[in-house]
């Protein structure tokens, strides 16, 4: 008998009386088991691999490599550590970027699950209300408006009502929210200052997320999922400490430097490795989008072992990837006024600007 496990993101709601607990480690371990399944191993190891099946059955062929074998144990260790840290996590006032009667915006730390951030909001609101009014306040129903990967830090919006949540979900779905991220990457210094990458994005049955050709968008993968489009614009902030920090509002794309992915990238593995700080603006919101496009460009994010990023660099071992959700720009769901929520720049980004 064969069982199929499907992991899907859930909209999380709770009230003060019912704080749901989330099986973080179980979800991650299940995902590890799925993504490292036999169907996703290199052809030289498994002659009936995913790529062979896709070719014989006319399925789209992924253009990015499968998960490195070394990533399984490292990711397992990180998941267990994050589960332990998340169980003890509590938001402080210093983590709050913005708050009004409809929203609370926080700076999520690296290595903490989103659900743990959400769970700690009621206590933060309760303590704040007590300190102001001296009486117990009713904690509203809370909802995650956006999610970040476990090891991605930065801006998270949490709504205080279903109505506001619905409006923000629609804004994200309709691509009316502009997002910027900062990533510290390792690879050969790019010859471009700005670039936009357009490709397909998908995950076949029991597989990992991979880059597909742009022309494969809309085609069906093994298991029934469909290749979807993804587009990310990048700009260089610094290379080996040479450069200067620009404001996210200054982000500009180069309309003359657009890569439409149709074949595998050619990466020189023997080339010198540089430290590159980039800003990314995803036009779509695909899972691991920036991480996948950095890998395709040959500048994998430092610490991102899932997508060929180094786990050790200059004698230092990294506990997670260095990707930070820097800003979210949108119309306020109630007032309609334009707002930009920004999280403080992490220490590793400041270090990257030092020669």
Radius of gyration: 21 Å
Q: Number of helical runs?
A: 7
- Write the CATH homologous superfamily: Pseudouridine synthase
Q: Please estimate the helix content.
A: 10-25%
What is the CATH class designation? Alpha Beta
What best-fitting shape do the alpha-carbon axes yield?
Answer: globular
Poorly predicted segments: 1-23, 28-48, 131-135
Distance between the termini: 58 Å
Q: Identify the quaternary structure here.
A: single chain
Q: How many strands appear in the DSSP assignment?
A: 16
Helices and strands, in order, run as: EHHHEEHEEHEEEEEEEHEEEEH
Tally of individual domains: 1
Mean pLDDT: 84
The helix/strand class is alpha+beta
CATH topology: Pseudouridine synthase
CATH architecture heading? 2-Layer Sandwich
The biggest beta sheet, please? 14 strands, mixed
Strand percentage lies at 15-25%
């Amino acid at each position: 008998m064969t069982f199929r496990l499907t992991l899907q993101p859930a909209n999380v709601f709770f009230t003060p009386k019912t704080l749901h607990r989330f099986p973080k480690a179980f979800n991650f371990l299940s995902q590890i088991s799925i993504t490292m399944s036999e169907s996703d191993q290199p052809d030289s190891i498994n002659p009936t691999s995913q790529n062979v099946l896709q070719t014989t059955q006319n399925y789209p062929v992924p253009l990015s490599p499968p998960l490195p074998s070394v990533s399984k144990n490292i990711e397992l260790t990180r998941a267990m550590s994050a589960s332990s840290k998340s169980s003890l996590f509590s938001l402080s006032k210093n983590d709050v970027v913005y708050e009004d009667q409809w929203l609370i915006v926080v700076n999520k730390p690296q290595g903490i699950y989103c659900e743990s951030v959400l769970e700690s909001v009621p206590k933060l609101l309760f303590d704040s209300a007590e300190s102001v009014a001296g009486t117990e306040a009713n904690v509203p129903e809370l909802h995650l408006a956006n999610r970040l990967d476990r090891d991605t830090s930065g801006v998270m919006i949490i709504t205080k009502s279903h109505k506001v949540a619905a409006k923000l979900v629609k804004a994200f779905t309709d691509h009316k929210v502009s997002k910027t991220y900062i990533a510290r990457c390792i690879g050969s210094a790019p010859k471009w200052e700005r670039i936009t990458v357009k490709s397909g994005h998908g995950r076949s049955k029991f597989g990992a997320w991979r880059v597909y050709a742009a022309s494969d968008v809309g085609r069906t993968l093994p298991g029934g999922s469909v290749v979807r489009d993804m587009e990310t614009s990048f700009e260089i902030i610094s290379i080996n400490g040479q450069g200067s920090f620009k404001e996210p509002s200054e982000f500009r794309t180069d309309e003359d430097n657009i890569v439409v992915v149709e074949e595998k990238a050619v990466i020189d593995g023997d080339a010198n490795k540089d430290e590159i700080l980039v800003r990314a603006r995803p036009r779509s919101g695909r899972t691991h989008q920036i991480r996948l496009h950095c890998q395709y460009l040959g500048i994998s994010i430092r610490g991102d072992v899932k997508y060929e990023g180094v786990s050790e660099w200059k004698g230092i071992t990294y506990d997670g990837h260095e990707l930070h959700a820097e800003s979210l720009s949108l119309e306020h769901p109630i007032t309609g006024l334009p707002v930009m929520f920004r999280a403080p720049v992490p220490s590793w980004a400041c270090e990257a600007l030092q020669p």
